Amino acid sequence: MTDRSRFLATARQVITQEAAALETLAAQLDGSFDAAIDLILNATGRVIVSGMGKSGHIARKIAATLASTGTPAHFVHPAEASHGDLGMMTRGDVVLVLSNSGETPELADLVAYTRRFGIPMIGVASRADSTLLQRSDIAIVLPQLGEACGTGVVPTTSTTMTLALGDAIAVALMKHRDFTPEKFRDFHPGGKLGAQLSKVADLMHAGDAVPTVKADTPMSEALLTISQKGFGVVGVLNKDGRLVGIVTDGDLRRHMDGLLDHNAGEVMTPNPSTIAPQALAEEALALMNSRKITCLFAVDPNDQGQVSGILHIHDCLRAGIV
After folding, report:
1. Burial tier of 22 (Cβ tally within 10 Å: 0-12, 13-18, 19+)
2. Which residues pair with 270 in a beta bridge?
3. Does position 151 have pLDDT exceeding 90, yes or no?
4. Residue 70 confidence (pLDDT)
């Protein structure tokens, strides 16, 4: 077997072993998981996540996932906790402590602090009789499985299970709180994911930038508005200010003969496609592509059909929505 073949075989063995561990973890979860979720939901403060070494790296990720999905959380390093950072924990918080062995000495001061001040603690470890789980209010026991490294000393399978457990906690909390993609975007406005979760209201042009005229406006004035606003269209409003039509380049061509003898209401295409300001910009882009149009007026259904703004396809592309 060549070196390259051995590398591939090792990779498959590691992934297969860790996947099997996750299936075991899923099957082994019991009422302690439900109790942990209830404890976090009833907390008036934050979730403090802690762990040492590789468990600490996983703890940081879990804290970040919780914080971005509607559960205030942050990571406290157990060694730093012994030098003043214990003050980051207060009554009302819930502490989630990770340790594969459950005997990590650096956790001692942090665990003692939670016991002294009555701060609820959820412990995660692979030994039910470990010091950590014995002192926890809620103990979540990980399956005792061999590490995927082959030597049994490098945290691999254990950290994969702990990471998956953290994701399970975050998603369970999300579903209970009906945490929507729109809410997620509030915590994650940057990058491609933030762009995909942008709302129409975040990108649309509003106020004086919106090209609109009344239905009885002469086409000479409507043409001037189209030219000045730069969207290539103009929205047509009725006497109540509601959008009833749109004048596009196609409408102008169809009424080229005697165009200036008409008003906007006579030239417009009635009942144009619109989008709600709170809709995802990704939805607006899909609608523009399907209708083969370049602009959408944003109309708030809760505001009696009043125009809130206008979104151009280029606004979506500039924001990174493709």
Report:
1. middle
2. 245
3. no
4. 84
